[in-house]
Amino acid sequence: MKKIEAIIRTSKFEEVKTELKKIGIDFFSYWDASGVGNELLRGNHSYRGTVYDTQYIPRILISIVLRDINVQKTIDCIEKAAFTGEVGDGMIFSFNVEQSVRISNGARGEASTAGPGDEKLK
């Protein structure tokens, strides 16, 4: 199993969420996040006619745990949906998950991540 963490533009969250649902990712966690990045080297930025102070860059952090077989498809989906071509589109990371347990029924390993959309991802 793998855990994918993606840091994306806040403005792209709904598009990423919609595209993930299309490939069967119906459940994930997300948080509002702020960070600093390479944009700071270039000063303030203009986006859609508005100038933003890039000292703190608002982002969304998405976290998904899934079976190895579904990792590349999920990464490709996020990359495509979050892309603008501008500096600051974000990053995607993949980590090994050693163990998982579904608390409600005691399912362990891959069985703990199974859900209704799992069949679409095979």
Cα shape:
elongated
CATH architecture: 2-Layer Sandwich
Helix content percent band: 10-25%
Instruction: Work out the number of β strands.
Output: 6
CATH top level label? Alpha Beta
Number of domains: 1
Low-pLDDT ranges: none
Strand order, sheet with most strands: 2-5-1-6
| CATH fold annotation | Alpha-Beta Plaits
- DSSP strand (E) fraction? 25-35%
Largest sheet: 4 strands, antiparallel
H/E series, N to C?
A: EHEEEEHE
Instruction: Enumerate how many helices there are, as a single number.
Output: 2
Radius of gyration of CA atoms, rounded to a whole number = 16 Å
Describe the structure.
With 122 residues, the protein is an alpha+beta fold. The chain has a single domain, classed as 2-Layer Sandwich (Alpha-Beta Plaits). The protein is 18% helix and 31% strand. It contains 2 helices and 6 strands. Strands 2-5-1-6 form a 4-stranded antiparallel sheet, with helices on one face. A two-stranded antiparallel sheet has the order 3-4. Helix 1 runs antiparallel to helix 2. The longest helix is centred in the middle third of the chain and has 12 residues. The radius of gyration is 16 Å and the shape is elongated. The two termini are 14 Å apart. The model has no long low-confidence stretch (mean pLDDT 85).
